[in-house]
Amino acid sequence: MKLIADSGSTKTDWRLLGKKQSIYKYTTQGFNPYFQSSEELSFIIKNELLPQFETPVNQSHMKIHFYGAGCGNDAKKGTVYFSLHKEFPLAEIEINSDMLAAARATAGRKEGIIAILGTGANTCFYDGDEIEQSIASLGYVLGDEGSGAHIGKTFIQAFLNKEMPKELSKRFAERFKLGKDEILDAVYKQPNPNRFLGSFSKFIYQNLKEQFVIDLVAGCFGQFFDKQICKYDMYKEVKLSCVGSVAFYYSNILRAVATNKGVNIETIIESPISGLALFHQGTEND
Questions:
Q1: Distance between CA atoms of 134 and 208, rounded to whole angstroms?
Q2: What count of other Cβ atoms lies within 10 Å of the Cβ of residue 11?
């Protein structure tokens, strides 16, 4: 029996792989060890996950694969391990990053370049087993090109600088009722400015019929390829797979820009959980 988790700061998707290829689906609130304690994760497991199980699980024959945001170093992995071990003391536990989750969910056992394009952006080269190389994304202030925060920031800049079509500017102003002062306060003084900037992605997507918006998004993806993907030596030889809401919803533009850059995109998915379940279901020793 295997329990798979794909955890972000907002939501955690769980899959329990049972007998006869059965798969059970669960959802709890998210967890990020950079912002939450092991006690908080224990609380989530005990009060949100376990009550969803129809029958008690046999922990002595269980292996847990937990993939999560913030699980890229040993200290943060320890935070997650402590919580899982407390609630599943007999289970075998493996903890990995959300980047490896994206790689296994899309590429399986094949090598390739992997990208996460959501509110933020991250990439790596995956050798079919582990992450072999990565390029620092530098966060939403200095990097994260192609992410929801980057696209939102570029759109907001155009709005404040009066560089977008008047009708589009009017629709944005009527929808959000945000002036310069409110925007600057949210970006420079309030918590989670990256989420604030990324929150405009839905409006931007809804206005993709505008050539201005198409060009803006394409320009952001162009920077993503230039700053990230095209810096991998083998970017023209291996295929790129992408995970995340921004990659998924803007996939037509992303593929067009990739073709222009000489990059071959193989897979684009919104969430890795289904691919992870299939990966571990087909791997007897994992």
A1: 31
A2: 13
| Cα-based angle 58, 60, 62 (whole degrees, multiple of 5) | 70
Taking only the tens of pLDDT, the chain with its 286 residues reads 899 999 887 789 999 987 777 888 999 988 888 778 888 889 998 999 989 887 777 777 789 999 988 788 888 899 899 989 998 888 899 999 989 999 999 999 999 999 999 888 889 999 999 888 887 776 667 778 899 989 999 999 999 999 999 999 999 999 998 889 999 999 898 877 888 898 899 999 999 999 999 999 999 999 999 999 999 998 999 999 999 999 999 999 999 999 999 999 999 999 999 999 989 886 655 5
Asked, for residue 125, whether it belongs to a domain, the answer is no
The CATH number assigned to the domain holding 202 equals 1.10.720.160
Q: Is residue 250 part of a domain?
A: no
Q: How far apart are CA 118 and CA 26, in angstroms?
A: 22
Split into its structural domains, the chain has a count of 2
Number of Cβ within 10 Å of residue 182's Cβ equals 12
Parent domain of 97: 2-104+272-281
How many helices (H) and strands (E) the chain has is answered by: 13, 10
Instruction: Provide the CATH number for the domain around residue 47.
Output: 3.30.420.40
Q: Parallel, antiparallel, or unpaired: how do β-strands 63-68 and 92-97 relate? A: parallel
Q: List the structure tokens of 92.
A: 């075998």
Bin 4: left if φ > 0, else alpha if -120 < ψ < 50, else beta.
beta
φ and ψ at residue 167, rounded to 5 degrees: -65, -40
Whole-angstrom distance, CA of residue 221 vs CA of residue 271: 20
